[in-house]
Write a structure and sequence with these properties.
about 600 residues; alpha+beta; five-stranded antiparallel β-sheet; two-stranded antiparallel sheet
């Protein structure tokens, strides 16, 4: 049954926001408020949260700032579009014409409201700086948002690869299709080359569209994807049941009745028409949308069996949507936006495979470099290591009653605030800085090419010019000083430095601590080798003991107990090797 035109228009707006904002962890309540026109209040709230460093708010605001504010159509363009569409709508039956005209005017009024809200609330440069700060920390969504902020093809491709490698589904989908389309250089080079099929499979869990496009490719084969009819049919059906019907409609006519019943294809076509009527297909408000929503259900070529199947599919789809909506509410209420249906404490953890992950736990260990004994350990359900350096270092100090400690860690632990805490506690850190900037790949100077002069509180750029202090502000919870030179406009090597008006350099108020650590690293070239030889050995041994399933228990308290038993057994065996059984037994008896 067709809903009122205004309801369909609101559904279409919600669908237009939801397809990407959900990937950015926006709540269902936020989507409802945006679609209902509560735009200024939503943007103000997002801005306040973004100022305090909220990652979801930063990324959602970044997407709205670009798509709705920067690319948003002016009032003149909107009115011209409305006039042309109303002219085209004269060919529709009167009832359809009236319904379409109402929905179109509702849509145009909303776009004008959005444009006005953008002018009132959004500062593009400020939002971009927040997104760039998140991207520098390896946030996949933020990296993806930066793709559209450059016209340099090589830099766009690098940013898309970085976002895909960080596991952001939309980036994986887009990169897959640039590779399939044959865009030169899109896949990367050497051992770091991406495969389109792998990207679509990795993103399919979260994006039904990826599974559907994988099915279309498997029908006859695409670049990096072999033809496989059975797999194409399976993936197309799975995608349709998850809401992406296009793949069944696309491949169905090319299959024999034994591979896919024509009535099944017709049934999904009816489901698509019903989604169009509701404004839930994501096709936008247009004359074509109205014709699709009205012509298909009345077609005389659709059999009664197809209509019966369509009713079944629609009921199943509705039940699934209700179940997913309930899970969505749980995810919204969860502090980290995740819900595990098998273990309430387990969370998504990144793995060594690019763009892949596993639901489980993150085990932290501190291992001494001389005997490879595990001095301290902790089980967490946070999917990264950035906030673990200081807690684990201080836990190690307490365990061995030692204040003079040097800590080796990999790039995943690099975070300024954590390194500062260690420095304040008298703990020396050796953590290499991750290379998150795409400037080197784009042929531009990196921040390391700019030399800081403490006595003058300024930078010397590669051209020899002075980049002086300009202002200080708080971004993502950090107090940052900004520097740039007035000579950029006449610089002969500006093309190697920046595409903007000035090359701006940000310096954290405690960056001297990071510089001090970097000097220690430069004096200790063997640091990474020592860390690998020390920290990886116990993990390799324990995983070999555990077997493929690793932990056998669930929830953090039980998994922590299980891990403690493994650590105890490992340390006992190490002590036996180091001291011998008899001396160890004697020491235990004391």
């Amino acid at each position: 049954m067709r809903p009122p035109a205004k309801v369909a228009a609101r559904n279409d707006r919600r669908r237009g926001f939801a397809w990407i904002l959900r990937q950015l962890c926006a709540s269902e309540q936020l989507l409802d408020r945006l679609a209902a026109g509560d735009i200024v209040a939503v943007l103000m709230e997002l801005k306040a949260r973004a100022k305090s460093g909220d990652p979801t708010a930063i990324n959602v605001l970044g997407e709205i700032a670009y798509q709705q504010c920067y690319l948003g159509r002016t009032d003149d363009v909107l009115e011209g579009y409305q006039a042309s569409q109303l002219t085209s709508a004269q060919a529709l039956p009167s009832m359809d014409r009236e319904s379409y005209s109402t929905a179109l005017r509702e849509d145009i009024a909303f776009d004008k409201q959005m444009k006005a809200a953008c002018s009132q609330v959004i500062d593009q440069d400020q939002v971009q700086s927040w997104v760039e700060a998140r991207a520098a920390q390896g946030d996949g969504a933020s990296l993806w948002l930066l793709v559209n902020l450059t016209n340099h093809m090589a830099e766009r491709q690098q940013r898309l690869r970085d976002a895909a490698a960080a596991g952001f589904p939309e980036a994986q989908f887009e990169l897959a299709w640039t590779i399939i389309a044959g865009q030169q250089g899109a896949a990367g080079t050497g051992t770091d080359m991406f495969n389109a099929g792998d990207l679509l499979r990795q993103s399919a869990d979260q994006l039904p569209r990826s599974e559907g496009e994988l099915a279309v490719c498997e029908l006859s084969g695409c670049y990096g994807i072999s033809a496989d009819i059975d797999a194409a049919v399976t993936h197309a059906r799975d995608a349709a049941q998850r809401g992406f019907v296009d793949a069944v409609i696309a491949i169905g006519p090319h299959l024999s009745p034994s591979q896919m019943d024509p009535d099944e294809v017709s049934a999904w076509t009816l489901v698509q028409a019903s989604l169009n009527q509701q404004g839930c297909a994501g096709n936008g408000i247009s004359v074509r949308w109205m014709k699709s929503a009205t012509d298909t259900p009345g077609s005389t070529t659709i059999t009664s069996n197809a209509r019966t199947l369509a009713d079944q599919f629609w009921q199943q789809y509705g039940a699934q949507m209700r179940e997913l909506k309930q899970i969505g509410k749980q995810m919204t209420q969860a502090p980290d936006g995740q819900v595990s249906l098998t273990d309430p404490d387990a969370r998504s953890m990144a793995t060594s495979g690019r763009g892949t992950g596993i639901v489980g736990y993150n085990v932290q260990t501190a291992v001494d470099t001389k005997h490879h004994m595990i001095v301290a350990h902790e089980v967490t359900n946070v999917g990264h290591d950035r906030d673990q350096l200081s807690p684990m270092a201080q836990k190690t100090c307490a365990a061995i009653d030692e204040k003079d400690l040097t800590v080796f860690a990999d790039r995943g632990y690099y975070k300024g605030e954590q390194i500062l805490e260690c420095e304040q506690a008298g703990i020396k850190t050796l953590v290499p800085k991750p290379q998150t900037s795409g400037n080197k790949a784009a042929g531009l100077f990196d921040k390391a090419d700019f030399r800081y002069i403490p006595a003058k509180n300024e930078y010397r750029c590669p051209a020899g010019e002075r980049a002086i202090w300009r202002y200080t502000r708080v971004e993502d919870g950090l107090t940052l000083h900004k520097y740039w030179s007035s000579a950029c406009s006449r610089c002969t090597i500006k093309a190697k430095c920046t595409m903007g008006e000035n090359r701006r350099i940000a310096r954290w108020e405690h960056e001297d601590v990071l510089d001090k650590m970097q000097r220690r690293l430069n004096r200790t070239p063997q640091a990474s080798r020592i860390r690998r030889q020390t920290a990886e050995h116990p993990f390799g041994t324990l995983k070999a003991w555990m077997g493929a399933t690793h932990f056998l228990t669930k929830t953090i308290p039980r998994v922590s107990t299980e891990m403690s038993l493994h650590v105890l057994a490992y340390n006992m065996k190490r002590a036996m090797q180091i001291l011998g059984i008899a001396p160890l037994m004697a020491a235990i008896r004391v």
